[in-house]
Amino acid sequence: MTTASLISDLVESFKATGRIVIVGASLTGLRAAEALRDEGFTGSLTIIGDEVHEPYDRPPLSKQVLKGWVPAGNTKLPRLREVDADWRLGVAATALDRANREVVLANGDRVPYDRVLIATGVRSRAWFNAEEATLKGLYTLRTCDDAAELQAALKARPKRVLIVGAGFIGSEMASVCRDLGLDVTVAERSSAPLVGPLGGVIGDIAAKMQRDAGVDLRTGVAVEALTGDADGHVRQARLSDGTVLDVDVVVASLGSVRNIEWLDGADLAAGFWGVACDAGCRAFDVNGVVTDNVFVAGDVARAPHVLYEYQFMAIEHVDAAVLGAQTAAHNMVHLEMGRRPHLPLPQFWSGQFGVNIKGVGVCSFGDEIVFTQGSVEDLRFAAAFGKNGRIVGALTFNHGKWLQYYADLIERSAPFPPPPPGYDVPTNSTPMPARFGDPRAPTGIPDVVLTGHDPTSRGAEYRPKAR
């Protein structure tokens, strides 16, 4: 028997008899399960999720659901095929026992595996004051239950809504409030909305959009305290500039926290920015040694990317979650020569204040920006981001049909400024500083983060094995 035929037999044997556990029952987990079955895996498949709900779509929660167009419970993801899995919903994973190859659950059950996929994603960052966090009328938006509660609060017509944080989700919620005719104040520590992912030049445009739509945008300020009435409902917010606002609803849009606490003691390279893995979705241990049976995908993963100096990237985008799930599934049921890399070119979109914003690449990796098409004044334009003489990202406002053109340039490491498309040239096409802030600042963290080679960089936490 040749080596090739032996490897083929091993792959087919695992597909028939192997045990795979997916921890995380959201988009990544579902698409990975479907991909495993598409790859011919007929063995035991278990999907673990801490929510009681089947996998659902999150992007509509901050848009259609809050507007009341779609009930929060009607966002369940479509099943692309039967997955024939043992679903363990409503029970969280609390530990990964790599020595015995078991996932430990909150109810004490231990689920054995031959290979495991970590797809636990992120959660909303909690309000910083534990006592204030118990006030009625204070919300976050991550789950469908969060969306249902917040939609009911907005439907009750509060006198004023305060949104703390002006990233994509905070800005989308502010847009919804204005569409509903509600008075809304946005408090943002940075100089403008969207500075973290898109820089100050675009942030200034986003700020004008919000103010033109009637948003009371307060930049360069933080919310220092919330106070409630005798019934424990939030009524006032004190800002760092001394302003006191009367508010009925407060939404904390403070970014996300990666769900890695359950991996304490597993000796994986897990920290503030997620779980480090190679380009094939295989997790690294704390010493930088790649594992063979632990895989990572979705928002919780951080992996090196050839287009971005092999720095580790943590991506909170839908397309990256789906492609990562498919790559992880493929590699879980193949051996060395049959594996493939997950090297996504991040793409994202946001709808706010009547503008369709789409982007590709890692804009925040760049340090320069140039407007390449259209009109900033008309909120219909394309812009490219560059670093060291090459294009690394692109953004469009109501000009999304050109996104693939810029994606092709980024993948070819085309020069910056990029070649002009030939028409619709803006009046000002001179590169300028993009004005990104310090990524270590406690605000404006982009949803694609270059985390560096060092596992302790940018606040990542190294926790050695307890003795």
Automatic annotation (TrEMBL):
Domain called Reductase C-terminal: residue spans: 348-417
Cited InterPro entries: FAD-oxidoreductase/Apoptosis, FAD/NAD-bd_sf, FAD/NAD-binding_dom, FAD/NAD-linked_Rdtase_dimer_sf, Reductase_C
Residue ranges annotated for the FAD/NAD(P)-binding domain, each copy included: 19-320
Region described as Disordered: 417-467
Keyword annotations: FAD, Flavoprotein, Oxidoreductase
GO function term, MF aspect, one: oxidoreductase activity, acting on NAD(P)H
A Gene Ontology cellular-component term: cytoplasm
Cofactor(s) annotated in UniProt: FAD
Pfam families: Pyr_redox_2, Reductase_C
Keyword Nucleotidyltransferase attached: no
Designated name of the protein: FAD-dependent oxidoreductase
